[in-house]
Specification:
Belongs to the short-chain dehydrogenases/reductases (SDR) family. This is 3-hydroxyacyl-CoA dehydrogenase. It comes from Kytococcus schroeteri. Keywords: Oxidoreductase. One of its GO terms (molecular function) is oxidoreductase activity. The protein has about 260 residues and is an alpha/beta fold. It has one domain: NAD(P)-binding Rossmann-like Domain (Rossmann fold). It is built from eight helices and nine strands. It has a seven-stranded parallel sheet with strand order 3-2-1-4-7-8-9, sandwiched between helices. It has a two-stranded antiparallel ribbon with strand order 5-6. Strand 2, helix 2 and strand 3 form a beta-alpha-beta unit. The longest helix is centred in the middle third of the chain and has 26 residues. The chain starts with 6 loop residues before the first strand and ends in a 9-residue tail after the last strand. The structure holds nicotinamide-adenine-dinucleotide. The site of nicotinamide-adenine-dinucleotide has 28 residues, from helix 1, helix 4 and helix 6.
Length: about 260
């Protein structure tokens, strides 16, 4: 797909981090974006900052919890008002740590459930409602009538494969997102909608900003090459490549500089 003025992208977790960086890159390419994030000031401010930079009518905020059917449906409807919803990017997520048997006792089931609910069920909720909207799009022109109606990009993590100590819930949620990718692509193929997942390594975003300098150095040293944290722009660049390359479908791409996480 080409990014044109009519191209609308819905990006969850768009207030900050990987989602925000992806929105910027898409705006630079000429798209319109709907930032979906928890209701509140952060999302409003992010959209206002983009409006200041890119002009009116380009970036909007839709406050929604990705777990909520009605709120996500409203965000999808808002995106459809702006043009053609061609891209949904699932970046909303939490990384709540917790050992199964920790110092404070056994991991509360509620903690596990909440991580699965936000990361996995939330991703699926956005995927299904975005797909429903995209299925009504005209496919982009293609010599064999096989152009895309849309693309859905999910975000897993290297924790899908090498979950560390304290990541039972997070790794379960991300592993399931990886496993969802192929059947979702197969389900949506008749609608000419592609589904791809990116599994980032350790990226330099607000999710990681709280860590002390020595922890950052230790993490950087784990990455074979380049031995540094990933940049959100590198994630955003991959999203735009996924938009442009119609053969990428049903696959998880690690974006990690060959990082393989040790147990802790
Ligand atoms: N940063 C990393 O190193 C890294 C590595 C691997 C995977 N990831 C994944 O990438 C995604 C983005 O990570 P990030 O570093 O940009 O995170 P971040 O914490 O900077 O941003 C996540 C955003 O999601 C929003 N969010 C959380 N729960 C939500 C909900 N229920 N509904 C709507 N929005 C919600 C938050 O408000 C926040 O704006 C996450 O899924 C994360 O697990 C990040």
């Amino acid at each position: 797909m080409q990014i044109t003025e009519d191209f609308v992208a819905l990006i969850t977790g768009g207030a900050q981090g990987l989602g925000n960086s992806t929105a910027r890159r898409l705006l630079e390419a000429g798209a319109r974006v709907v930032l979906v994030d928890l209701p509140g000031e952060a999302g409003e401010k992010a959209a206002a900052a983009f409006t200041e930079e890119f002009g009116d009518g380009r970036a909007f905020f839709a406050g929604a919890d990705v777990r909520d059917e009605e709120q996500v449906a409203a965000a999808v409807a808002a995106a459809q008002q702006l043009g053609t919803l061609r891209l949904a990017v699932n970046c909303a997520g939490v990384a709540t740590p917790g050992k199964i048997l920790g110092r404070k006792g056994v991991l509360p089931l509620e903690t596990y459930r909440t991580v699965i609910d936000i990361n996995l069920v939330g991703t699926f909720n956005v995927l299904r409602l975005a797909a429903e909207a995209m299925a009504a799009n005209e496919p982009v022109a293609d010599e064999r009538g096989q152009g895309d109606r849309g693309l859905i990009v999910n975000t897993a993590s290297v924790a899908a494969y090498d979950g560390q100590i304290g990541q039972a819930a997070y790794a379960s949620s991300k592993g399931a997102i990886a496993a969802l990718t192929l059947p979702a692509a197969r389900d949506l193929a008749p609608s000419q909608i592609r589904v791809m997942t990116i599994a980032p390594g350790v990226m330099e975003t607000p999710m990681m900003a709280g860590m002390p300098g020595d922890v950052k150095e230790t993490l950087e040293a784990l990455v074979p090459h380049p031995a540094r944290l990933g940049k959100p722009e590198e994630y955003a660049a991959l999203v735009t490549h996924l938009v442009e390359n119609p053969l990428l479908n049903g696959e998880v791409i690690r974006l990690d500089g060959a990082l393989r996480m040790p147990p802790k």
